[in-house]
Design goal:
alpha+beta
Length: about 150
């Protein structure tokens, strides 16, 4: 009797078919509008928008706090300025790039690049009067035009 050991052609074909099905399922999970890669890009953009809004809010709060410290300790209070906001963001968030404030449009736009994502934050600036600082109402963050 001749005994041969090994796999049959049928077992080999079934194995290849199973591997092809698994590869197809994996590709579908990775790509497409609801795939893992698309969701990762969306998550990066949402994170950048949240970080930008937080950075502007922190900068304004930091300047406003210093304003009241100077006011109560006899120092010269410094109003919230675009230069002050830019300096504060650059100090607290050194990884952010291209930080700029455009006060031409209404609302004012604070733009920056975070993790290669261009983001802008809408800010409504109300000038202060009679020894009061200006107020900055932080609005929504969005992807900058062109992204």
């Amino acid at each position: 009797m001749n005994k041969q050991k090994g796999i049959t052609l049928v077992a080999l074909v079934i194995t290849i078919i199973v591997l092809l099905i698994l590869a197809g399922v994996t590709m579908a999970a990775l790509s497409g509008p609801n795939g893992i890669l698309s969701n990762a890009v969306k998550a990066n953009e949402e994170t950048a928008k949240s970080q930008a809004r937080e950075a502007v809010s922190l900068a304004v709060s930091e300047i406003l706090t210093q304003y009241y410290v100077d006011d109560t300790t006899g120092g010269t209070p410094t109003d919230i300025t675009t230069a002050g906001v830019i300096a504060s963001i650059e100090k607290n968030y050194p990884d952010f790039e291209n930080v700029a404030v455009d006060s031409t449009p209404t609302p004012t736009k604070v733009t920056m690049t975070i993790n290669s994502v261009d983001v802008e934050v809408a800010v409504t600036v109300t000038p202060g009067g009679a020894g009061k600082p200006s107020t900055w109402s932080i609005g929504a963050a969005s992807l900058a035009a062109g992204d």
